[in-house]
Each structure stands twice: as C-alpha cells, then as structure tokens.
Amino acid sequence: xxxxxxxxxxxxxxxxxxxxxxxxxxxxxxxxxxxxxxxxxxxxxxxxxxxxxxxxxxxxxxxxxxxxxxxxxxxxxxxxxxxxxxxxxxxxxxxxxxxxxxxxxxxxxxxxxxxxxxxxxxxxxxxxxxxxxxxxxxxxxxxxxxxxxxxxxxxxxxxxx
Amino acid sequence: xxxxxxxxxxxxxxxxxxxxxxxxxxxxxxxxxxxxxxxxxxxxxxxxxxxxxxxxxxxxxxxxxxxxxxxxxxxxxxxxxxxxxxxxxxxxxxxxxxxxxxxxxxxxxxxxxxxxxxxxxxxxxxxxxxxxxxxxxxxxxxxxxxxxxxxxxxxxxxxxxxxxxxxxxxxxxxxxxxxxxxxxxxxxxxxxxxxxxxxxxxxxxxxxxxxxxxxxxxxxxxxxxxxxxxxxxxxxxxxxxxxxxxxxxxxxxxxxxxxxxxxxxxxxxxxxxxxxxxxxxxxxxxxxxxxxxxxxxxxxxxxxxxxxxxxxxxxxxxxxxxxxxxxxxxxxxxxxxxxxxxxxxxxxxxxxxxxxxxxxxxxxxxxxxxxxxxxxxxxxxxxxxxxxxxxxxxxxxxxxxxxxxxxxxxxxxxxxxxxxxxxxxxxxxxxxxxxxxxxxxxxxxxxxxxxxxxxxxxxxxxxxxxxxxxxxxxxxxxxxxxxxxxxxxxxxxxxxxxxxxxxxxxxxxxxxxxxxxxxxxxxxxxxxxxxxxxxxxxxxxxxxxxxxxxxxxxxxxxxxxxxxxxxxxxxxxxxxxxxxxxxxxxxxxxxxxxxxxxxxxxxxxxxxxxxxxxxxxxxxxxxxxxxxxxxxxxxxxxxxxxxxxxxxxxxxxxxxxxxxxxxxxxxxxxxxxxxxxxxxxxxxxxxxxxxxxxxxxxxxxxxxxxxxxxxxxxxxxxxxxxxxxxxxxxxxxxxxxxxxxxxxxxxxxxxxxxxxxxxxxxxxxxxxxxxxxxxxxxxxxxxxxxxxxxxxxxxxxxxxxxxxxxxxxxxxxxxxxxxxxxxxxxxxxxxxxxxxxxxxxxxxxxxxxxxxxxxxxxxxxxxxxxxxxxxxxxxxxxxxxxxxxxxxxxxxxxxxxxxxxxxxxxxxxxxxxxxxxxxxxxxxxxxxxxxxxxxxxxxxxxxxxxxxxxxxxxxxxxxxxxxxxxxxxxxxxxxxxxxxxxxxxx
Lengths: 161, 986
Known about the structure:
- The complex is a heterodimer of chains A (161) and B (986).
- Chain A has 161 residues and is an alpha+beta fold.
- Chain A has 4 helices and 10 strands.
- Chain A is globular, with a radius of gyration of 16 Å.
- The model of chain A has no long low-confidence stretch (mean pLDDT 95).
- By secondary structure, chain B is α+β, with helices and mostly antiparallel strands.
- Chain B is built from 23 helices and 50 strands.
- In chain B, helix 4 runs parallel beside helix 6.
- The radius of gyration of chain B is 38 Å and the shape is elongated.
- The termini of chain B are far apart.
- The mean pLDDT of chain B is 94.
- At the A-B interface, strand 2, strand 6 and helix 4 of A face strand 8, strand 31 and strand 39 of B.
C-alpha cells in the first residue's frame, strides 16, 4: 500500500479568527461564509467554518496591515483576531493522502462523504486540527496550533503506509 | 514425520525451519505452528495452569485452550501465543510454558497429588485459613505454582499504529457465509470490510473437503478471494481479529502486520488497531466445536474432530497413527472419513447416540471400522494418549489402543461479540446451544454463528443477508450469485457428561476446572453461572472459555436440577482475544504518551543550556545552566540576582491569552472578574481575579483594553483552557443575550518578559523609535508597535517586582525574539532566566500563584479581598459570602522567614504554635511555596496560616514530619521586597 503523497508547509499566509457578532447570519456576510463545516474560497481568501458563526480566514495575500482590511470590511458585523502566527498549515496531497490522514482522523474522509468543500475541526493523535478539502482531488489542508506542530510532525513521521 | 504424502494447502516447495524448546524442526510454508509440531510428532506442547498436566493440541483455531507457547525471545518474547493460530515462518522460536525444569519432567506436576485441596474456590478458602500464613505462604505458593507464560519484563521494541475505517457493511469472518456475503455486497458496490483472523480466507472451506458449485471448497474460496481483491470498494483484512463492539456501531479490531515475518521491516508497525464504524455488520464467525467431558479428556492425543479434519485436509498432517472417533453428532463422521482417506487407521467410531447416521455407519463398517452406537469413552489413558476405555451400550467396558481420539460434543455458535453490548444469548433446544436473540444495532449473525450449521445454509445466508443490506441502502444488487454445496446432515444429541469415569474429567482445560470442581461449587451453593465462573474460574482464562463455557453450565444445571436455559449463560466482554496493551497505546508511549507543546524559543533555549520542566503540556525552560555551575540553585541564584541588579529575559508565552471582543465585552468581563473592567481606559492594563461559581478563586491574570470593544485577557499557564471554557460558558449559556465574542490567541503571540532596572535600556536599544519614558508608557499601560514589520505589543507589567515589560510578537517570529533581546541587552549583561527564577522572584514579591491558587482559597485568604467590587455582581460573589468562607479563623496568606537564617523552609510543611504538641489538632496551616532568596540571603516562604495577617511578628514552628526537621520561623507580610512598589514604577 505504498501510495505516494506529498506534505508541504504553506508559509506566508495571513490567518484570522472571524466570529460573527450577535444576530449576524452567515448569509448576510456573503456567499463565501459557509453555514457549517465547509470551506469556501473567494479570490485570495478561503473561509473555513470552525463553529457556529465562527470561521478561520486563510488569505494568500494578507498584506502588512492584516487583518486590517478584513476588520474594515466586516466592521460592526464580526470580531476579528489575527492568528497568522498561531497555526502551522500543511497541505497533504496525493493518492496516499487520505490513507495517511485516516490513520489519525476519526471521521470518514471518503470523497463521497467528505466531499470537496468539506471541513472538520477534529483531533489527530490528541492534537487539535482544522482540516479541509478544498477541491475534489485527494488533497487536504490542515491547520495545527504552532506549539503542537513539532509533535504533529513526529506523528506524521511515525506513520508508514 | 506425520506429513501426509499428498494434499493440503501447504507449499511443499517452501521448507521452513523453526525451533521448539531449542529443537530445530522443519515445517512448510502454509503451516501453523501447531500443524508443524504435529508434522514433527510433537504431542506434548505445554503444561496445564494448575496441575501441570501435559497438554497437547485440542483445536485448530483461536479457541485453543492448551497449546499456548511463548513465541520469540528477549524483548520480543510473546507469551501465551496459541500455536494453532501462529503462522509458521523461517526462524520462528517457540518455547513451552509453565514447566520447570523441562516439558518432559515438571516438578510442579506434584500439584496433582495435592489435587484434593486445589479444588474450586481454593484461592478463596485460603482466606479462611490462619491469616498469618497468607502473605508468607499461600499467596507466594499459589502465584508460583499456577500460571502460564511470563512477560519478558523488557520494554516493547515494536511500535503500533491505528486506523479509522468506515463502511456500509463489516463482515466478521471469511468462512463460507462471510465470503458469500462479501462477494455479494462487493458486486452491489457497497463499501465493505471483510475481516478474518486467519492468514487465508475460507474458514471451514479450507478445513473440510467439500464442494461448492463445481469446485472443491478451498478452490472456491480462492476464486472468491481473488474476486474480492478486484473490488475497489472491498477492503479485505486478513490476520485481523475483530475483538470488540462498542456504542455507535463501532468495532475494534487488531491487524497483525509483521508477526508472521522472520524479520519485521524496519519502521513497520507490528500491529494496527482498527476503529471501524460500520452501518451494518454480519457476524460470520462460525461455530466452535465442544469437547466431551470424560476421564482424561485433556490428554495429549484427544483432539476436537473438526481440528483433526483441519490438520488432515488443510495442513496434510496426521495427528495420530491409529485413531478413534467419539461423537454425539453427525459432523464427526466426516472426520472418520477424512482419517481413512488420509491413510490413518480408524479403530472405532463411538457414537453416544443409539442411532448414528446410517449411511456413514454402513460405509465405515464396509471399511472394517468398528461402529459402537450408544457407547461412550469413559477414560483416556496415557500421556500422550495410548488407549481409551469404552463403555458399550450393554455396559461392557473395553480398552482400545489408539494414539488419537477425535471428539465432538456438538457446536456452539461463536457469538461472543454479539453480547458485548449486553444482549444476553438465549438457549435453543433446536441446536442445543445458545444463540443471539437480539444483537447490537446494525448487526446480524449468519451461517453457523446463527445456528445454521450446514455449508449450504452458510452460503445462502451470506448471499441473502448481503442482498438485504444492499436493498436497505437502495443500491442495485449486482451480478446474480447462486451457490450450491454438497449436502450433509447436522443431527446432534448432546451428551453433557460421561458419568462414572475413573480419572479427572476436565471442563475448562486452560484453567484446569474439572467436573468435580463444578459439582463441588454447586454443593457449596454457587448455582448462578456468574457465581460459578468466579468461584471455579470457569471461562476466565485467556480463551474466555470458548470450548468450556457451555459444558460447565450444563454440568452445573444438571447438578442443581435446572435446565440449561434456566441456568443461562454469562456475557462475553471485549476484547474477545488477548490484545497487546501496546496496540491500544499506539503512538502514545514514552515521550509521545501525550502531545507536548513547545514555545517558539524552544530551539534557542536548548542551545543555551536550558533544563526543561512540564507545565501542563508545555515544556518550559526551568533554568539556563552555564559551564561551571554544578548545582541548579547556584544557577537560579545567579539568574535572580542578574535580573534584580541588571536585566533578565524570560519566555512567558505559555500564559493563556484570550481576545474578548464585542459591544458587550465590558459587561461580560465585569461579571467574570471580581473587580471592574468596564472602567478600564483604552491602553491600560489591570490585574484581574476570577472566582468560580462556588466563591473560590479560579484564576488571575491581566486585562488590557485595546479599544472600546476589544479586550485582551491573560490567564495562568495551567488554567488557560479552563478559563477559555469558563468564558465561553458565560457568554453562550449564562448570558447569551450579550453581544460578545471570545477566542484563544495563546498560540498567536510569543511573549517575553524583560525585567530588572535595566529593562527599559534594553528595550530602548531594541526599539529605538519608541518613547519608553514613564510619561509615555507608565506602569500598567500597553502600546502597539511594529517590530521588524510585524504587529507587536508592549505591556508594562511586572511579576518580579522590578521595572518590567512584556513584549509580544507573532509566534511565527517568536524564534527571532530571544536572539534580538539578547543582542539588544548585550551591553547590560542581559540574562535569560527560567521558571525557577521566575518563581523565586514572585515569592520574594508575595504574588500568589499555582500553589496558592489551589482551588481551596478565597480572595480574602490571599489578601485580595480589596479587589472585590461591592458595586456590581460577578460570578462567585454570593457564594463567597458563605459563613465558612468568611470565617476569620481561615488560613490566610503570610510570609515566613526562618529565625535561624541558615535554616531551610520547605513547601508542604505544617505550621503549629510554638510550644505545642506537633499533632494534627494543633495544625494551623502549611507552607505553600518556599524558595531560597538570593536577594535576602536566606530561605523564605509563603504560607496559609490561621488568622495569618493578625499574627505578623509571631514565631511559629514549621513542622516537616516527612522530610524531618522542625524550623522556627517568623510570620510576616508576604511581600519581602520593595513593599511600596517603587521599583515597579521607576
């Protein structure tokens, strides 16, 4: 079962926790704000649903004032916290990606179940992860708190497919 | 050699060398260890648990009670491995167990002479004997005399991993029913997992010589296996035992990945734990043949008839030269045929029934085999077996010389898994066994596991039930799949006991429970199956009584005058087979036992001589030893003095950090903290104290107002998650009407404390453009800034009591911060310090921390009652006014300094008044934190002392019964240095 996969750390991304203020519905914020555990991309930014009225914003071009532009756009509607330094983001892709992740993830990642655009806030080896599948192919993005990243890498290294 | 000249599913071109008790033997690829031992005429494989009787091989499956061996050597020794399921490989080393000094000559076999006292309940009865002998005599004796294999005592050299799988249909067992179900479900496109403990699919199709369609049964199994391998939607797990069922349609299984390999590939896990979530499951685990209860039925050479057939047909080995068959049902007549066809002489077929199957009996007679109807074997003689004594229908007793006796007491469906969730099996008069009446949600037994014992029934069950699952999920059925097998009869008249045998008749072979033990237990009043189990240990061995349970219950029922249905059956519990603890631990052992959290400066600290300490999951630098420092206290003293006289830097990133945002953030924080936060000006920092609902102190920290609707809150390291949970509970459950959001930003910021009289100078060098004057940034203020292009924050707060700051940068730049601080501080001899120096300085400054915030202290106990607002409500306010919490005699925070300046104070020591007895009744409090203060040159301590604040100046005795030595100490104010705080504001 030596299925190939690649793991790449995605660096230079701007991240933020986005939490809707009271009474603000996702739909009112825009189509890129998913209602549930999904991820939606718009332009340079991906929004990953991590809880009711809560998202992780992942931006390819945050800019020096991040999360200023996001705060301005959502002023009065969302509370924003910069998390650019808080997570290590990994991109795991290839035929073996799902096999690898399924060793740690206790939810079904089959493409018919965890379809393109799905997201999950879950745990691997007792380490909290936010996991999403941006598109149909066997490729996943994964956010791990920075302090756990070394331990998470050790778990990855201990797996043999 | 007992290898047959032809037949079998072994590879005659692939010889395999292995050893048993040091003897080098030869087997073939495809052998089990048991079949290879039989091929080498090894008949005695182990000694029994209690009486050390010689034992051979009883079965050909995982229900084996006798043939337990230790596989491997050194740290890979695996005790209690069933030889019947161990796959033979080149270089395999097996050792017999529970014998001393050797298998042939076992001194402990004298236990048999003491058998009259080693009866049921022996262990419990010793409790009633003279108690003074218990620890010295009974317990050590029992422990040494009884037992199976021993653990190596060495760390497990292998590693284990786990997998999570999801499927529409899990099929447990790949015999005829399981294979038929898997092929049917596979063709319908269902997500299927088929698991079997064997290394080859087929179950009884491999052990019997049957016909399916137009193929020999083993060939049909191969065809089915080949088809399954082509279905992408079917996962076939061989060498995998489903050992337990749990709530939520979850199944636990263990896959043995490398146990069958001579040398495990490096890095490969030895075994894998599977957590399988299956919408539906079919229990196709077949049935276990029951032994018969007669004298000497445990002797090597007495073997289940189905096992004899398996060894002949699958492994092409003959377990004897001259055999007899003793049965109560039809199936063992096929074994007699297998024996004859393999060239083994069959002396007699003894059927306890008066009406054995006519055609089979006639065929045997034609071959010159004696058929004894209505007869029983009363005793087996010799060890290994030399002869049997048979009582014929007319009462005449005869001796027949044989070295193999194939026995069959009928079949019990393997339904242990089905009772894991508490569904109690029910008795069936039709099959003379217990069956699953109700099964766990989504699961159904099929084939022999459902009491449908014929091959045709098994195949048809598999097809029908798999189609039912496909229909239930609304998927198309796939290609037609009709199966026909040769016919057989499955009549059975159980015989639970062959009465009047001369020698010991065993029921539970692995725990040495005899017929006499069971009747004794009944006489002593143990007439419930659960009591019987615990009193006699019936079914409590590693085989979970799979061959013995029903025989034991039937004997108990008969002795108690009940029916078996009334006696009932015990429930099986997971795991159904022994599973190594390492499998459950998986990755989480040694340093991976729990995940660890590292700060961004971890590498830097390691390269600067840091020792580390656990703080929750965090690894924090405890101190930074320099060359020449051989004592940690020397290092810590240096760090404290360097900070108090110059400047020290310390990573405090592990403190919890929470953003609290929204228009109602001020209102929420007012309710969370005892002091008011809504009045805090933007840019200001305030110390805050939180109570639990019950009025006790929960946590403390700082609150910074970043904007009108934005606060930044810190917590202690260990309480970070608890405070986050508390805040979420307050805003989501207690006051959902508030418009307030909160999220943890602990991971976002890398924060360093810069403390000491030169801290401003250091920071000015680091941040030349920032005005750090007292006017621009006074004590308890914060400011935002840019550091190397990144958003950063500077707080003027102090834990050490010195002029101090905390600087925060995004954690992805955190690794750069200590380098930058040390470079900027080079001119001021900046010194990194760890948690130990941090702790010394906070004790010197009288700050309560972890040891004082212990969940049993009130704000008043800690001298913080002045913070408690009387103008607003907050969590814990009402309960903090309970009489017990406001009692003036409560222990309250004080400082202690020894009268003898050289004396050491220790945390945990108790405080008693001078001149009083050192007894619990005089206990007035205890030392919470103690430290050597290099600033003052002696030990100091914080303590909780009854009426403490009123007793400053009094001398008390610090009593330390654990570590010895009493010290007299003066009670004083807990702040030892700079009581008016002029350094903070400097």
